[in-house]
Amino acid sequence: MRISATMIVAALLLLNASPELAARDRRVNQIPNGLQFDCQTCHETFGGSPLNDFGLDVRDNFLTPSGAAGNVDWVIELAMLDSDGDGFTNGEELQDPLALWSSGAPRPGNQSLLSNPGFGTSVPDGPGSNVIVALNGFGNLVGRWMEMRLVDVETGMEVWSTARSGVPSDAFAVGLMGALETRDYFVDFYVDGNGNMEYDAPPVDEAWRIRLDNVEGHSNLDFTYNTNYTDIQWGEIVSVNEGASFAGVELLANTPNPVQGVTAFNFTLESAHNVRLQVLDARGSLVAAVTNDQFAPGVHRVEWSAAALAPGVYFYRLEAGAAVLVRRMLVLR
Predict the structure, then answer these.
(1) Is residue 238 very low, low, confident or very high in pLDDT (cuts 50, 70, 90)?
(2) Which of 213, 221, 139 is nearest to 176 (CA)?
(3) Domains of the chain (ranges plus CATH)?
(4) Does residue 279 register a pLDDT over 80?
(5) pTM for the full predicted model
(6) CA gyration radius for the chain?
């Protein structure tokens, strides 16, 4: 067979391209439900480059090591980003909002709700209608924990909730799902003011309520930052006490939170108790036993290292006598 110059050039091009092509093939399997969109999970076309918004975030911040040989770090920080700015986080679009999935595990979530995190025109299409809230003027709150929920006015039931590990910019959108035709809803949201990632009534946290009446299809709301706060009464304690009173036992916010390395769990006792303190993952499974000792009355501080934990949302649970209290923390890389 005669080897032509054209064949040599083509072979060289293929050789030079192959590491990046292999990297794309591998990375699809390192993203939850990545096979749903194949190369377009990170790229604008099936041919590879250019990268879409999600792909740019992965390339710039979530590859280990960086570069063509890097593997995708599917962690809570990436899951809670909204790369394409459509109001839904990457994790919500890929059906793994808390980054619980790991490579090789079964595909997570509801496959019918999948949407592409790199294209703003691709959003989850589930039961009911979507409510997209466009927020403006939040530049002074960038980086703070935020939560938003959709509440049925008549029943008081929470229909949908979402969180952002940090307000991303001065102007951004947040998406909610599940609004039913003709019904009325509250859109409640707050931005954390003291770093505990839990709701405290204003003025500690900044909180607002928008009313949406008589829903007809997908809705778009505009909201500009103001200081007309509303106490939306978002529950501070994640779990309820298992029967008896909380009297005499208080579980305070851990410090620091979010956690990078060592954090301190703080609690107060009016009387002596054996205290069991545990860390649970987002599924409720035990990941660490912090202490199981007798404590005298007073204020106590127990330091603990989260270095062995993967990034994500965790809960810490304190049992003292009949009191059971649970609070939330975010572990970062």
Answers:
(1) very low
(2) 221
(3) 18-113 (no CATH), 129-224 (2.60.40), 249-331 (2.60.40.1930)
(4) yes
(5) 0.72
(6) 23
